[in-house]
Amino acid sequence: MQKLLFALLVGCTMMACRQKAEVSSPDESIRLTFRTDRKSGEMRYAVTVNDRPLFEPSLLGFVAQDAELACSFRIDKVERTTVDETWTQPWGENKTNRSHYNEMAVSLRRKDDVRLVLRFRLFDDGLGFRYEYEVPGRDSLVVTAECTEFRFAEDGTSWTIPANFETYELLYRTLPLHELEDANTPATFRTAGGLYGSIHEAALYDFPEMVLRRCDSLSFKADLAPLPDGTKARVAGRFVTPWRTVQLAPEAVGLINSSLILNLNEPSKIEDTSWIRPMKYIGVWWSMHLGLDTWAMDDRHGATTEQAKRYIEFAADNHIDAVLFEGWNEGWETWGGEQHFDYRKPYADFDIREIADYARHLGIELIGHHETGGNVPEYERQLDSALLWYADLGVHNLKTGYAGGFPGGYLHHSQYGVRHYQKVVEQAAKYRITVNAHEPIKDCGIRRTWPNMMTREGARGKEWDAWSAGNPPSHEVILPFTRLLAGPMDYTPGTFDILYERTRDSVRRKLWNCGEEVNMRVNTTLAKQIADWVILYSPLQMASDLIEHYEEHPAFQFFRDFDPDCDWSRALAGEPGEYVAVVRRAGGKFFFGAATNEEPRSLHFDLDFLEPEVTYEAAIYADAPDAHWETNPTACEVTVRYVTSADAIDVVLAPGGGQAISFLPL
Ligand code: NOJ
Ligand code: CA
């Protein structure tokens, strides 16, 4: 009798095991349990961190037209692997990254032979999972919904922008999880237990973007950007989704220091990456946003041959690598209307050949610009010839723009948009052209696979300071913990004329794109603008103000010394929306940046990140004692100290202020 009971117990346990599988992170702090429901065959996962529940059992799966892909599954087999590898990239916050995870691939099967592999990867700094479906007898499928849930076990605080399939240029909200209705990703949170996390996705290809929508009190469900007919995606009978990711860390800066998103992307598909390099740039750009110049050719045209040469000369004289020109090609008259741009026809007053020759002669790179106004079909028709034309001129860097709706009811963040943005990246790579996309699809780490995809906008950038109430002081200290977890951002910091005192009353100035608001300004101190060059990582870093505002300004020395080609980065301290401090190493130089919201703050750091036994000249760009973002924003002091790794620094930040330090080895 006893023997039989034992046999039964073993049998039950084995059966139960078959419908449940567990995996933990290499350090065993994060545990994920996967289960299928015995009756319905629904699939759920749950997550604990240090034995405290993070996600209660949360649904998994998809729904397609004529194919239900979320129920009736049984576990067929479970395969486990551990990977611990170190990989390098041509540029990035860190050129060397470690990818260390435990993978659990759960193979599921249904009576109708639909197969699914759910691939879970658990790292010490979070997790990712993706769906690999195989629907027999179907060449194609129409995906209509995603069922993935994130059911928080406890309340917390969140930092997000609203879910929106057309734009990310929205203000961040700090909300308790129980008040959050919807969010775009990266959706950053801190649980009541003090754990920091951020939900996002990795390797987004040929699929719509994912946003989060509340389904009940503390639970959120994935939603996908629709196609014009309301369905979500066209896929093959065999399809693999992007990774659903959750970065996790005991401290907020742990999220910034995580390379989980890149670790879940594939290695570079571009073999020779020697032509891809980080750069500092300036551009004929801010003058248009301020309303001094125009993009279209008229008596206030910004991109003229004369202006171009002036900017190229300034770049050559100030250790700046490249110059951007916007409003150089025909079509801007139609911006906001018909949106017809010609990407090979410079305006008559912009002699692109002469300009390209001049730039080459002075060793300066040109950054081309393709504003599409959202007219994707027309852009795709011209894309190949336009890229070839640029490459022939020696223009190997391209900024793109999609300021305007796509025709045919397609949304920027839909599968249609994702396909288009990817097409541009791949086509550009053929001509050795790098890409900086504005009004883009969000970054999901594809820069590892396509390192010519340098940077993008995808949040409210500096431009909003020119024609709106501007970005609030907290904005730039939320971005590192939210938008920048996805990847680099072309924020374009560096306004020195914070109050627009030198241009406000110019006879050339005609306000545009603003509503009631006419007293525009930048809502930071000058030192914070400088610190942003370090804090807001971008391999293409812009000094965005008019060059005449930099000439002879002592604080511009920071940008001359700055090297955007960093090898290593570390976020040292910070809280989302409150403050942040970051240090980066580029060759032998180190750059430090710290910034705060409206609150003044004093921080203390040991300089033990510096190389031992090296003396550095530390040039400190600090808020003056009476600086204040609102009342005295330009009071900035530059001082020099000599330091070693045995020293420490006290960093005093004014309200809305910041501090930047360059450490140059002697
Ligand atoms: C919006 C972009 O973000 C900005 O950088 C650009 O100048 C304008 N569109 C015009 O293309
Ligand atoms: Ca924009």
Explained architecture:
The chain is of the alpha+beta class. Among the domains are: 21-263, Beta-galactosidase, Chain A, domain 5 (Distorted Sandwich), CATH 2.70.98.10; 462-489 and 503-538 and 553-666, Aldolase class I (TIM Barrel, Alpha-Beta Barrel). The chain contains 13 helices and 37 strands. The strands form six sheets. Strands 7, 8, 9, 10, 13, 14, 16, 17, 21 and 22 form a ten-stranded antiparallel beta sheet that branches. An eight-stranded antiparallel beta sheet has the order 1-2-3-4-12-19-18-15. The radius of gyration is 26 Å and the shape is globular. The model is unreliable at 1-17 (pLDDT under 50). The protein binds 1-deoxynojirimycin and calcium ion (CA). Calcium ion (CA) binds next to loops.
